[in-house]
Design goal:
Radius of gyration: 20 Å
Strand order of the largest sheet: 3-2-1-4-5-10-9-6-7-8
CATH class of the largest domain: Alpha Beta
Structural class: alpha/beta
CATH superfamily of the largest domain: HUPs
Number of strands: 10
CATH topology of the largest domain: Rossmann fold
Length: 280
């Protein structure tokens, strides 16, 4: 049985993270862990405002706000549990109370997938996408990550990005191993021909042989130009429900496309979940 982590901020509960994690857990019959990142250094804005005020800090007020934060986190965990039970998901809840990014990276060692909202910051303010927290997670995580938009859409189509490099094939492999039930779903493999590189496209014999065994309904699309621009333009304004699979940079090497900038651009410009896997 596979193990999926849903990374959740209990003070800003992401229904999207919960819904995507549950859908994938159902499809793969996985064990779902709600990882509630209750970082001891992270509080609601009201506590920060209280500490920053010129007035003397009231211990009673501070305690009241801490109790309100605890109540918010308890409600978020209860909502997660209720959603899992409604869908008959095999699940548990972890409350990680130390430094959030360290806790989540440690948990990822023992997981098959992390699901996280693209806008997750684990702070009381918003940031541009992808946030610093998500960037750090993607740089150091020990398993694939699904970065999801803030609105859930049922998955209807798989888009595999392939650049002829091993990193992209590795991501496609991991996705197929994790979610074999999605292999028969409508699937499109996208490549981009560039002027400065003789890429082995998706039509090469070995790639076709591999894809036929894992994604029998796949169709191939080859674009021309700059990958960062062409892929985003091609995928923009399409039907809802697409899930995009790409390989991220490896330690000590960079795939032709799958450097952090493309992943960042996809997360910024599209409203689709993005499955990212390292080939370390």
């Amino acid at each position: 049985m596979k193990k999926i982590l849903a990374a959740i901020d209990g003070l800003k509960f992401s229904e999207s993270t919960c819904n995507y994690a549950i859908e994938l857990a159902k499809k793969s019959k996985a064990y779902l862990v709600g990882v509630f990142l209750d970082d001891y250094s992270y509080h609601s804005p009201k506590i920060y405002e209280l500490v920053r005020s010129d007035d003397e800090i009231s211990e009673q007020e501070l305690k009241q706000y801490e109790n309100e934060d605890k109540m918010s986190r308890d409600i978020a965990a209860a909502n997660f549990k209720s959603a899992c039970e409604e869908e008959a998901i095999n699940y548990c809840v972890h409350h990680d109370r130390n430094i959030a990014i360290h806790e989540l990276l440690h948990e990822s060692i023992y997981a098959d997938l992390v699901v996280i909202d693209a806008k997750e910051t684990l702070t009381h303010y918003e940031e541009n996408l992808p946030t610093r927290f998500v960037r750090e997670l993607l740089s150091n995580v020990e398993c694939p990550v699904l970065v999801v938009p803030n609105a859930f859409k049922q998955i209807k189509k798989i888009v595999l990005l392939y650049d002829g490099e091993s990193a992209s094939v590795y991501a496609i492999k991991l996705f197929s191993y994790l979610f074999p039930d999605l292999e028969k779903m409508e699937t499109e493999i996208i490549s981009v021909k560039t002027i400065d590189k003789d890429m082995q496209g998706p039509g090469n014999r070995l790639m076709k042989e591999f894809i036929k065994r894992h994604f029998p309904n796949a169709v191939y699309t080859t674009l021309s130009g700059l990958p960062d621009m062409e892929i985003v333009n091609y995928l923009k304004n399409r039907g809802e429900g697409e899930l995009i699979v790409l390989g991220a940079y490896r330690r000590g090497a960079v795939s032709m496309w799958f450097k952090p900038s493309l992943a960042d651009t996809l997360i910024q410009e599209l409203r689709s979940p993005v499955f990212i896997a390292h080939n370390k």
